[in-house]
Amino acid sequence: MMKWGLSSGTPADSYYEVRSDCTDDVPKSKFKIKAGKTLSARKWQAAFSPDGCLDIASVLRRIQTGGVHPTVRGEVWEFLLGCFDPRSTFDEREEIRQIRRLQYARMKEDCREMDSHVGSGKVITAPLITEDGRPIKDPLVLLEATDKNTSEGAPATRRNEIEVDESAERITDKQIIEWKLTLHQIGLDVLRTDRTMVFYENKENLSKLWDILAVYAWIDKDVGYCQGMSDLCSPMIVLLNDEADAFWCFEKLMRRLRGNFKCTDQSVGVANQLQHLASIIQVLDPKLHDHLETLGGGDYLFAFRMFMVLFRREVSFGDSLYLWEMMWALEYDPDIFFAACEEAGAVHKNKVSRSKLRGLRHFGKWDKDKDKENAKNGSEDGEDGPVPISVFMVASVLKEKREKLLQEARGLDDLIRILNDVNGNLDAKKACAGALKLHKKYLKKVQAKKP
């Protein structure tokens, strides 16, 4: 649960209660709420016009200075992720919200018709179906949301204990089979996600997380469900009370990150970001890059997890939320709402007028710098778009560990050990500032090399 009314200087994690038996196991927050810098509830409300249009420029400045106060974080994220357009009114947003809630209810009902456990309050942690579509009789681990043992994890299912239900009708639709095969993996991951938080002692919250991930796995069949998604979805459940609202925030986040989860036998989904990281380190620190290559880390796969779950392991829960909103504010594009609507062919895309926001002040600082550079060089982004700030954040982590890597790392094991020291110890604000500095330095070096 979240605590309200804490004063300036309070660590961000004070709003996200940790179980008493886990206080020694969780990273300590380094980010503190600061009056005059953090976007407070008062400043947030003052940013709206009487009819509800949001002064996004003032909001972005405040977030980039001191993050978002936990009491309004969920509302702010809906704008940062593109759920709502800042030019919309209160009435327009409410209409869109209701349309989306109905849409989610229909998608969830479609999933429930394929598997009755969706929406039942249960978390599935054992296979429900065989790979050839035969339902499994009485799955061994079928945990009710009210089961007090749910949060403690579930015993592994032994193959010889699985009994096929011969009387049940065999499923032949390959997409349904593939989806149902993922449901128990979602359940196992849900039980491991943020398990130190008091919030997830409420089993309804666990089942809500499972339901959202199950529905998403069905609607995005190209990606489905992959490990790591539960870490990305969990904050949405914590911040937004309504399950449908949490789903749409997660869906908007996945629009940015789904490529990370599209893996083949030849490449990993984050391959582009790893290549960008390699190029950046090679330009900014050739000596470190050569050393990493010598160690066998020239593919930069050691940074895989940082990209997949956006630094959830490197910082505390509260600090990870601060880190995310800082990145989103820096990269903010005022037309993100319409881009998402057009991609989805959404029925509500015409509910607000599309009057173009003029001036770079409506963009995040990252986009301002990018646009200035493009204007100077007369160039556009590549087909993959601009390099995301997360790549430069990983670069800043490597820079911070540079001396230790050069002096102590004699193999991949040493490299991983040194970087694992970052887990729970990363300063989110310092990492963002470091990323911005490295970005400017990188642009200057690249520009200097041009004829």
TrEMBL record:
Name all Rab-GAP TBC domain ranges.
Answer: 67-331
Q: Which InterPro entries match?
A: Rab-GAP-TBC_dom (IPR000195), Rab-GAP_TBC_sf (IPR035969)
Enumerate the Pfam families for this protein. Answer: RabGAP-TBC
> What is the official name of this protein in its record?
Rab-GAP TBC domain-containing protein
Organism of this sequence: Urochloa decumbens
